[in-house]
Write a structure and sequence with these properties.
Blueprint: H1 2-11, H2 15-33, H3 35-47, H4 55-101, H5 104-109, H6 112-154, H7 156-162, H8 166-203, H9 205-210, H10 214-266, H11 272-313, E1 335-343, E2 349-358, E3 363-367, H12 374-381, E4 389-394, E5 397-398, H13 404-408, E6 411-414, H14 425-429, H15 438-447, H16 451-455, H17 474-487, E7 492-496, H18 504-517, E8 522-526, E9 538-543, E10 546-551, H19 553-559, H20 562-576
């Protein structure tokens, strides 16, 4: 099958321990087939002949076989599990690396909980199959084949009787596989739904509690869990029906052997020792057969999990480097948008014929009502998306012709929705420049008006900020994000409403700091408060995804157009706000 074929490619690099494990499995199989032969010898030539001369030699040899079997079993278990864990490690790391390469559009249409389910639950299901299912299948197949050969050698007539249940088991196994595989796929999908809802609710717990929607969300979670429960019960019903029926058929085989074998002993067709050995081998014959069908249950779950994992790995990034993409080692910061049109997915266009230029070191501000396309322009400049028409250039290079990583090394972004990692202040600040010195870090924090409040925190720069910076205020988080961008020392700086959550005093000081920080950098500033971008070299007013007017603050005010309307409206609102 395709899933197994792809899974085997992860095992192939570790062929040496795989060969050793295979040898140990073969040795284990041979050792497991020896004890019944010693039993036959003791029954026929010691008990039957009333001769104790070889008894303790045979008992000692039997003890040695069991001891050696356990030593071999230890080596097999250790190597097999270590190999399986290594394979799963490689797979998990590859999935994570692949997720890092996927475009933002993929994450916008796929929930975080669903992805977590694939990286954890589905990978764990494959881990069970690799460490237990594959090796036990190989071992039991060898035991089954070995036991069958020995049974044929001991007495071919009884061996044929032992084979009677096999057609019934094969038909039942085929029925089970056809029925249970789609059920297990549904089980994996429903588990993904649970993880998605859980992640969403835990992230939004403040909103849930603020609006008193705990009961509603509990009911929603119960509904999602109920669907998972129903799918699980359906899977349980299938294997709970199949395996007892299988064991009954296998037990019938043992009863038939005992009946026919007893008759043959009485008729002197076989010895009692042969029947005893035969009954022991029947256990070695039917037990592997029973385990193989139970392993098949693990196999079906692993196939369902593997399909989901490889679906994820087969997801191609929409934004990726061209084969001949060039590396931008240094840039001046000249940016050109030419006849740019853009839409998200299959939706309506959100940008129409956008065309403007940013000279190196120039500060360009984007203003306009909500939904005008300001953030979309910033996303295109970072090449999170590509335009559907037109092009964007940096220093004369079309962004589609340069390496994504090299482009983003020269661009730093401070988003309106600030994200901080669950780490220390120091770790968050150095995220864009891991080798930054403490002095550089402090200078960047001072420029963003963050140094003072950081010093007042319990452990200063070593203070843990909590998940998504939950221990900080909105203004503090934005100032840390700004300091992080400043420390990265980019040639192009994008500020997406970076001061929207700070108070008036902090905003004033940040603006003073930014006047120095923005010097010499090409800066794209998306402004909510128009008072913060009066000193911009160029202001672009957007409406409905189109550029309506371009100029500096005084020029646009004099025109009396869109910018003037927005500015005067904000000015009027600020005067009516209570002090």
């Amino acid at each position: 099958m395709q899933v197994l074929k792809r899974l085997s490619s992860y095992v192939r690099p570790y062929w040496k321990p795989l060969v050793v494990t295979s040898i140990l499995i073969l040795l284990q199989t041979g050792l497991n087939l020896l004890p019944p032969l010693f039993q036959r010898e003791i029954v026929d030539n010691v008990i039957g002949m009333r001769d104790l001369s070889n008894l303790w030699h045979l008992v000692g040899a039997l003890i040695g076989v069991h001891l050696l079997s356990q030593i071999v079993d230890f080596g097999d278990m250790f190597l097999r599990h270590a190999l399986g864990e290594r394979v799963i490690y490689d797979l998990r790391v590859q999935i994570y690396a692949h997720l890092q390469r996927l475009s933002l559009s993929f994450f916008e249409r796929t929930s975080t909980g669903e992805l977590m389910s694939r990286v954890t639950n589905d990978v764990n299901s494959l881990e069970q199959f690799i460490t237990h299912g594959v090796a036990l299948t190989a071992l039991d197949l060898l035991r089954l084949l070995g036991a069958l050969i020995v049974l044929l050698v001991l007495d071919w007539r009884l061996a044929l009787v032992a084979l009677v249940p096999l057609p019934f088991i094969a038909v039942g196994l085929r029925w089970f596989n056809q029925r249970v595989r789609p059920i297990y796929r549904q089980v994996r999908d429903r588990l993904g739904d649970i993880n998605a809802r859980l992640q969403d609710n835990l992230s939004g717990i403040r909103v849930i509690q603020a609006f008193g929607q705990e009961k509603v969300e509990l009911n929603n979670f119960q509904d999602t869990s109920e669907r998972y429960y129903q799918e699980r019960v359906e899977a349980i019903r299938s294997w709970a029906t199949f395996f007892p029926a299988l064991r009954f058929v296998a037990a019938l085989g043992g009863v038939l052997i005992l009946g026919f074998g007893a008759r043959m002993v009485v008729d002197d067709l076989i010895t009692l020792g042969t029947l005893v050995a035969f009954l022991s081998y029947i256990t070695s014959f039917y037990d592997p057969l029973r385990r193989l069908t139970e392993v098949d249950n693990v196999f079906q779950q692993a196939i369902a999990a593997g399909e989901r994992i490889f679906e994820l790995l087969d997801e191609n990034p929409e934004i990726q480097d061209e084969p001949d993409a060039i590396e931008l080692k240094t840039i001046e910061g000249d940016v050109v948008f030419h006849d740019v049109h853009f839409r998200y997915g299959d939706g309506d266009e959100v940008l129409h014929d956008v065309e403007f230029q940013m000279a190196p070191g120039e500060v360009v501000a984007l203003v306009g009502p909500s939904g005008a396309g300001k953030t979309s322009i910033a996303n295109l400049l970072c090449r999170f998306y590509d335009p559907i028409h037109g092009y964007i250039q940096v220093d004369g290079h079309d962004l589609r012709e340069v390496q994504i990583k090299s482009l983003r090394q020269h661009v730093a972004v401070v988003l309106q929705d600030t994200f901080l990692f669950n780490a220390t202040v120091r770790d968050n600040l150095r995220y864009g420049k891991p080798d930054a010195s403490d002095e550089e870090m402090i200078v960047a924090a001072q420029a963003a008006y963050a140094h003072e409040f950081i010093q007042q925190m319990p452990d200063g720069y070593d203070t843990e900020v909590g998940e998504r910076g939950v221990k900080l205020s909105g203004g503090q988080k934005q100032r840390l994000a700004l300091a992080r961008a400043i420390l990265a020392d980019p040639r192009i700086l994008i500020l997406d409403e970076a001061t929207s959550s700070v108070d008036a005093e902090a905003e004033f000081l940040i603006q003073q700091a930014l006047e120095e920080v923005l010097k010499g950098r090409t800066s794209l500033v998306i402004a909510h408060r128009l008072s913060t971008i009066r000193s911009a070299d160029k202001i672009i007013a957007l409406e409905g995804g189109r550029i309506r007017e371009v100029g500096d603050h005084h020029e646009l005010l004099a025109k009396g157009g869109l910018y003037s309307q927005l500015y005067r409206r904000q000015l009027a609102l600020s005067k009516t706000e209570p002090a």
